[in-house]
Amino acid sequence: MYRGNIFSNISIRWYALLWCIALLCAVKSTYAQDTSVIRSRNFGVQNEIYFNDSLWYFHAGDLTRAQQSEASTTGWDTLHYTAFGKENAPRGWRGVGWFGSWIRVDTDLVNKKLSLRINHDGASEIFLDGKPIGGYGKVGNSAREMVAMSARRELIPIWLPDTRPHLITIHYSNFFEVYANFYGFQTWIGDYNQLAPKIQTANQRFNYMLMCAAAQLILGLLHLLLFLFYPRQKLNLYYALFVLLVGINGIGIYLFYRTNTPVVQYFSQSLIDEGKVVMMWAAVMLLYILDYRKPPLWRRIALTTVCALYFIAYIYKFLNHIEYWVDYFALVFLICMMDGFWSVFHLIKKKQKGAWLISAGVVVVILLYYFTWDDVFHLWPYQLNSMRLLVMAVGELMLPLCLSLYLALNFARTNENLTAKLFEVETLSALALAQETEKRELIAGEARRLEELVRQRTAELREQADKLREMDLVKSRFFTNITHEFKTPLTLIINPAKELITETDDEHVQRYSRLILNNASRLLQLINQLLDLSRLENGSMEVNRAPLDLVALIRMHILSYESLVKQKEISLHFTSHWNKLWILGDRDKLDAIVINLISNALKFTDKGKVEIVLQQDDDLPGASFSFTIKDTGQGIPAEKLPYVFDRFYQADPSDTRSAEGTGIGLAVTKELVALMGGLIRIESEAGLFTAVLISMPYQVANAASEPILEILPAGVSPSVTVLEPITNIDGDKPLVLLIEDHQELRDFIQQSLKDNYRILTATDGKEGITFAMEHIPNLIITDLMMPHVDGYEVSSTLKKDVKTSHIPIIILTAKADTDSRIQGIETGADAYLAKPFEKRELFALMENLISVRNQLREHYSKQDLWFSNALSMPSIERDFITRVRSAVESHLNEEGYSADQLARDMGLSRTQLHRKLKDLINQSPGELIRIIRLQYAHDLLQRRVATVAEVAYMVGFSSPASFSASFSRHFGFAPKTVSAI
Fold first, then answer.
1. Cα 165–170–175 angle (5° rounding)?
2. Which end of the chain is more exposed for a tag (fewer CB within 10 A), N or C?
């Protein structure tokens, strides 16, 4: 029994072992099927393996960080060619995706330094087994986010520690088709130690190419200067043109092989194609000039025509991204250069000195083109490409050097002719020197006069500066005195308002008292900030330190903003590394700092969150804390960030800014932080976030029993009654649309007007325009400075729209200057009322505008608007009436044509058309259709076009009887009376 158990256990273990071996074999076979094996013997002469046609996997879209690090291609699509284009792109490719390939190495390459090389026109991030190893450019989800980079000559070192499969993943994006049908990428894996020196040597050769191009440019510029010095020798001009083109072409070749920017590479290739055409034209023309002085016209036309056709063809190739084509340029190049060589042969026959140099240079150019540039005989393998280009660059110097020697001989002969004139030039130089001496004396005298003038001006400026400083001191004293004087009347406003709140139960009185208290407190806070600025400027502010719990102080201020946070639906979080932090600090100044920063964060955050963090600051020596407030508000543009701590500076000074402010808070905060030995800085990105960071040293204090007094920050009301806008807009009272972003002022005006008007409210200009278009009110009151859309734009938009052009508009604003008033009137506003305004003045304006509107409506309703061409209406109203008349005329004989159909023809709702016509001419759409029909009937009967019965049907009545009844009611006589006259 015991032995049976032993054998049974042994059998179970063997079965388990065999099962594991089988499972490992299955996994290995799976990997072997999907894994590319890298063997050292496959590297070959180039020391690398072309890798983009191996088995790859593709995943469209993004991966999570967990998916990126798990090194798996499960569920990915297979792909056998990564250098794909638009036609053979992988399924799901939208310009960005993930590519993966499993590789393993043989025993010889384990722990050996290998290289990964990639060529693409997009951007990449490369991972090995989920870990980043490199990449080029910036991968993005759109063309705007992506930064393309080509790094085909860069190596990424990799090591594979074993022979197991490893996953290479490439996060790749490309939204540009720089080269025809190439959206994907090419990859190579090679021996780093063998490949890196070769690439370094090739790069040195490219640098030598650049040196050759620089020498050609210098040589060309030298001969260009010679032409400028001696314009009659035009041979220098053609030579300079040819050599400069050769140098520019060399730079283009260098950029093509060395740039990491795909677009620059593509432009460089186009520059090379078009440059060789222009170089050929310049070289042949130069040879013509050497022989003929003035080349024959037919030769110039033939050469220029051929080169122009090739130039246009290469531009067409560049614009249409054509990568390969047969252009037979090598044959054309040979023909043209042999024609130029014929000119050199003429020079040799004429026994021109140095002509053999030009002949040798032309032969070298022809040989270079066929043996290196075009490589007609395929003498240069890929690994010697840099050597081929270097040989070509050095060889291209031969013709310029030969031509330079030839031109130098000509220049020497020309120099002999100039020697005779040297004495004359020296004489003229002496005369010019004498004149120059005289001019210098005159200039010296003028300089002395100017120095004296500068001294006088400097003295005047110093005097003016002293006066300005004195005026500034007077202004500061006056400013301090007047702000102190403000505190007494404010005290007499705030305290009675508090008494009214506590002593009365009248809700109406309490609401107005809270309104007075809140705005008086806000004014008092602004005055205190101005006084702090003045004391800080004079250096008279002192720091009074006392024990306080900084954590409790911050929590208290956060709680005081609780109602505002709930109102704006913002999440406000506070994190502290201490439960209590007792320090010696100035409570008033810390209160001002915390209140300013929290109120700013909440003011400029319409949605999202505000995070407040208090923690130990390790950057400063000794005991110090770091206080950070970060919000997800509208942010600050980078170009305005350096100025936010300047006094009275506002990042958004426009009329459409989203929040009110004076630009004092941050300036005071910075001065207070500096006064207590701290540092403050701000980080922000427009549209994303703003973070204010304070670092401040502190002195530890013993805990005290003194409680922190509760402070209510300015601008936050303990309770505000919000009046809901009306929902029923159909009534007898005039409908008024109130557009105001300040809640308290909006509630005050609404409460004042509700007894005499029906009020519809909007919180900003954009919402106000929508409400005006939808409800067609009798009058509109709008603030000027509002978020998104200001009052000027509200007025201009509504006055230009046919639905709302007749509505009177009153603009309320604190900008009472003449230019602002003129601008408001130019936008079409009917009245401009400055804040603070008198409630009776607003009522009088409203009554007057509505009364005038009613008088105009009665006036227009009594006129014959349908057959008069000289109406007294404004042009936009006249156009509207004309459109209404045309719409009714086109359906005059249709009995069923109704007000609904007229509204659809006018592009309005029935309610909008009804309110527009009632406000304009005091007629409903149905009445209007009936009157137009009867007016036309009267005209037809008067001209005796048809009988009464026929006219009835012509103007859309169902029967002559109903027509006669309606006609008699409208005109006061029967239709037959008109036809009988």
1. 155
2. N
C-alpha to C-alpha distance for 745 and 755, rounded to whole angstroms: 17
CA distances from 239 to 251, 252, 300, 406, 789 (A): 19, 20, 17, 11, 64
228 & 106 share domain:
no
**How many structural domains are present in the chain?**
5
Query: 140 and 228 share a domain?
Result: no
Q: Compute φ and ψ for 267, nearest 5 degrees.
A: -65, -35
816 and 791 both lie in a single domain: yes
Which pLDDT does position 655 carry in this prediction? Answer: 46
Q: Does residue 455 belong to any structural domain of this protein?
A: no
Tens of pLDDT, residue by residue over 1-15, are 333 333 334 344 444
Pairing assessment for the beta strands 582-585 and 156-158 based on DSSP bridges: unpaired
Alpha-carbon distances of 468 from 223, 472, 479, 534, rounded to whole Å: 61, 6, 16, 17
CA dihedral 614, 620, 622, 627 (to 10 degrees): -10
Query: How confident is the model at residue 938, as a pLDDT?
Result: 74
- Which residues span the domain enclosing 127? 35-183
In a domain, 529, yes or no: no
Judged on CB neighbours under 10 Å (0-12, 13-18, 19+), 613 is middle
Task: Kindly write down the DSSP assignment for every residue of 110-162, as one continuous string.
Answer: TT--EEEEEEESSEEEEEETTEEEEEESB--SSTTT-B----TT--EEE---S
Instruction: Write out pLDDT tens, residues 442-488.
Output: 888 888 888 888 888 888 888 887 777 777 666 666 666 665 556 55
- Note whether 820 and 926 are same-domain residues: no
Shared domain for 40 and 178, answered yes or no, is: yes
User: What pTM, to 2 d.p., does this model score?
Assistant: 0.41
Does residue 941 surpass a pLDDT of 50?
yes
Residue 682 lies in a domain: yes
Q: Are residues 116 and 166 in the same domain?
A: yes
How far is CA 410 from its chain centroid?
Answer: 59
**718 SS3 class:** coil
Q: 499: left (phi > 0), else alpha (psi -120 to 50), else beta?
A: alpha
Same domain, 815 and 897: no
